[in-house]
Amino acid sequence: MRNFEYESPESLEGAIQFLSASQAKPLAGGTDLIDHLRTGRVVANVVVDIKKIPELNVLEINDSGLRLGAAVSCMKICQHEGIREQYPSLTDACTIIGGIQIQSRASVGGNLCNSGAAADSTPALIALGGVCVIAGPDGTREVPVEEFCTGPSENILKQGELLTEIRFPLPQGKSSSHYRRFIPRFEMDIAVVGVGASVSLDDAGEQITAARVALGAVAAKPFLAEKVDEFLVGQAPTEEVFTQAGEIARGLISPIDDHRGTAEFRTHVTGVLVRRVLTEAAQRAAAK
Amino acid sequence: MATQRIVSTTINGTEKSLLCEPRQTLLEVLRDNLNMTGTKEGCSNGNCGACTVLLNGDPVTSCLVLAVECEGTEIETIEGIATKDGLTPVQNAFLENAALQCGICTPGFIMSTKALLKQNPNPTEEEIRFYLAGNLCRCTGYDKIVGAVQDAAQRQCGAGCTSDA
Questions:
Q1: What is the pTM of this model?
Q2: Are residues A247 and A153 in the same domain?
Q3: Which residue range(s) make up the domain with A25?
Q4: Cys-Cys link to B148, which of A22, B30, B87, B99 (CB 3.0-4.6 A)?
């Protein structure tokens, strides 16, 4: 591995200063970065360990919702009862990212910043209405998660900017969420298709009042399937409606052929997964 | 050349200060700087789990940890498992159930098993397979490993579910 300097600032200001230098890379769990440094895919003069910054380790649910620090590990998320209760799609995703060794280290913030098209946590974040808080030399800005990635391994972060946390609104009434992916193995694999969805029902549990469906691994970046969301509002949470939602989703994707699956297969799986994920999310919502 | 760093850690209960370059992984430092070759190098990209160690009690692939990140941490490796009285129940269960053939993956499996049984002293077969998914074995076909973990759980629970792996 090519050598680099290592810094571990304890303040956001310190991190931004180090990250403003050329070829400076932030290090959270390192499960992507260290491998990329080893293979030479990423070259860094300085690696900035951001795990000692308090803002990046925030994990709390308060009256305005969930604050998830960008460096919080998947394991901490999986163990958080409040997240399992109120933001279960996040738990679903973090339970299946890599194996237990990866979950000990990898962060959801890092998963988002790595900006892979098949990232497991990103569709869950989009479905939950997550907003990225980004700090930089010119101050702080907020961007919805669905606008963060711009293409495979690309995102909106500028030099010196750092994702500090992701904020989520508090689910209201009968609302819940789910994330599921299709992989050829049982675990430890990259999504062929990943679907995250959140569903809100009226008090009687008979009508969908809001929905967000996000699709991963079927386009250059994970995205919000807005046409599916618009279709679902006002409908009853039935299998027929969710099958139709899957049909609409199939028309929104632009999948590739690769060794994990053909575009035709991904299109088929998208329809099936959207139906199943919406069914599960709606059942969870109805139980609230 | 980047500055060398002194990193203070506790390895297998003993305080250790080590000198390393920022680019060195924990795996590299354990094996090459400290001659602790019980931790194995497999894929070096976080897929195989052969290099699993416990970092502050959590299983991690040491190929994906920089040694400089370990300042102030507690590290446990396969060398710290057996006691002066001999092998532990997990080790004996692996041996007696023939849960290893070539043995390269075994230190990683033992470390993951220790973490699993600490968190879940009596896991189901499904829980064992899910938890150990980050450890690959190309010899055994896993059944004997899963059997050994179940046996180890029994042995430890027999001693009151409290003994250490």
A1: 0.95
A2: no
A3: 5-49
A4: B99
